[in-house]
Amino acid sequence: MNFASVRIITDDVDRLVEFYERVLGVSAERPAPVFAEFILPSCTLAIGHSQTGQLFGAGSVVAAQNRSVIIEFLVDDVDAEYARLKSAVDDWVQEPTAMPWGNRSVLFRDPDGNLVNLFKPVTEEAIKRFSGRR
């Protein structure tokens, strides 16, 4: 089994696409006005309009209600990403910080309130844990 993607359901696809294009530095593929994908080497981040949620069963998904999942991206330089995105992000949760499991992380919320973590392993143990994942 291979992990394929994470999909964010939103009421404003264009706003989230614009936000993640800035964060990720890549353009989204837009096969339909209600759907977009960021196809990255390690994963795909999909964004679907709340109208598409009905295709998964009435009431199965609700836009902008997530408070338990963190969308994480492995980056080369956490501090440089923080500086680059400082003016683009409205809701910073945590400035660059060393985490107890060996990563340096910065956390913020996207326009729908989803938590995003940009991180880099910095301790020897964390670097070993992530070797081969890029």
From TrEMBL:
Per the record, the domain of life is Bacteria
Write down the species.
Answer: Paenibacillus physcomitrellae
Q: What is this protein called?
A: Glyoxalase
Keyword annotations of the record? Metal-binding
InterPro entries, per database record: Glyas_Bleomycin-R_OHBP_Dase, Glyas_Fos-R_dOase_dom, MMCE/EMCE_epimerase, VOC_core
Q: Which residues form the VOC domain?
A: 2-121
On whether Metal-binding is a keyword of this UniProt record, the answer is yes
Q: Name one Pfam family in it.
A: Glyoxalase
Please verify whether the record's keywords include Repeat: no
